[in-house]
Amino acid sequence: MELTDGADSADESAKAWWSFVDSKQFWKWLLIGGILLNVFTAFSSELGVDTHAHLAEDDEGSLVWGHTRPIDHSASDPTYAPAGGEWDLSLAPSSLGEIGVRGLAIALTLLLIGLGGVAYGMFSGGNGRRAAALIAIYPTFVFSTGRAYAEPTIAMF
Known about the structure:
The protein is an all-alpha fold. It has helices at residues 2-17, 24-44, 49-56, 97-123, 128-136, 139-147, 151-156.
């Protein structure tokens, strides 16, 4: 009889340990913490190399310090590159400046968090806050927000 009581109490303690996950307060605070983490990361991290290069290029796509590919100097020349009708998505328009790019990165990440929460909440019976919180703390999006990379923008599509 004692062995059964021990197993029941172990199950009850395991259930009690995970009970906070079902609380709406937990997910609300996790979402707030994730948003604050993204904002802190965006303003405390250095911009990524790609973002820095996009900010430094002039209107013709040339960089002040010269070519970035030492083997083929013409590879960095936009007129030399073959045009295949592709479009170039840049999260870092050079007209915004560094603070503008950081603000744009935060805005796009917040848009992704909101869209994820709304889309998941419509189809899952109220779990949108959980989905938004998980998106907010997802390491790839936190890192890309700090470096002002385009991962959150790509994830929206």
